[in-house]
């Protein structure tokens, strides 16, 4: 299973589209062993009230010790990307590039 987490851009074929942080975290916790990749935007836009910006997903994964899922960052926010990348590197997670 691949998750595409973004408030505006629709998911590419083969991904499940999730638009808010709360639903993303619920899905990751429920299917943590079935998810091979999470592709993340940074800014949650109008969905920010539903769990904050998408960087909070990485915070929750770190808190829960979820480290077997590859992460792809498709955000256009350069500062957000670097903040997310720091979390990925700190935890030794695999970042994938498309």
Compact overview of the structure:
The protein is of the alpha/beta class and 98 residues long. The protein has three helices and four strands. The model has no long low-confidence stretch (mean pLDDT 97).
List the helices and strands and how they pair.
Elements: E1 2-5, E2 16-18, H1 21-30, E3 37-40, H2 55-64, E4 70-73, H3 78-91
Helix pairs in contact: 1-2, 2-3
Structure description:
The chain is of the alpha/beta class and 98 residues long. It has one domain. The protein is 35% helix and 15% strand. The chain contains three helices and four strands. The model has no long low-confidence stretch (mean pLDDT 97).
Provide the residue-averaged pLDDT. Answer: 97
Fraction of residues in β-strands: 15-25%
The total of helices stands at: 3
DSSP strand tally: 4
**Count of domain modules:** 1
Which bin fits the share of residues in helices?
25-40%
Please identify the structural class as seen in this structure: alpha/beta
Shape: globular
Distance between the termini: 17 Å
What is the makeup of the main sheet? 4 strands, parallel
Question: Strands of the largest sheet, in order across it?
Answer: 2-1-3-4
Computed CA radius of gyration, to the nearest angstrom: 12 Å
Order of helical and strand elements: EEHEHEH
Unreliably modeled segments: none
What are the defining features of this structure?
alpha/beta, 35% helix, four-stranded parallel beta sheet, 3 helices, 98 residues, 4 strands, globular, single chain
């Amino acid at each position: 299973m691949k998750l595409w987490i973004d408030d505006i851009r629709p998911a590419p074929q083969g991904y499940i589209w999730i638009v808010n942080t709360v639903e993303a975290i619920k899905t990751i916790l429920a299917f943590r062993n079935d998810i091979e990749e999470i592709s993340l935007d940074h800014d949650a836009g109008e969905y920010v009230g539903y769990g904050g910006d998408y960087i909070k997903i990485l915070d929750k994964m770190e808190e829960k010790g979820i480290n077997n899922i590859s992460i792809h960052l498709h955000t256009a926010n350069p500062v957000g990307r670097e903040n997310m990348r720091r979390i990925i590197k700190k935890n030794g997670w695999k970042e994938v590039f498309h």
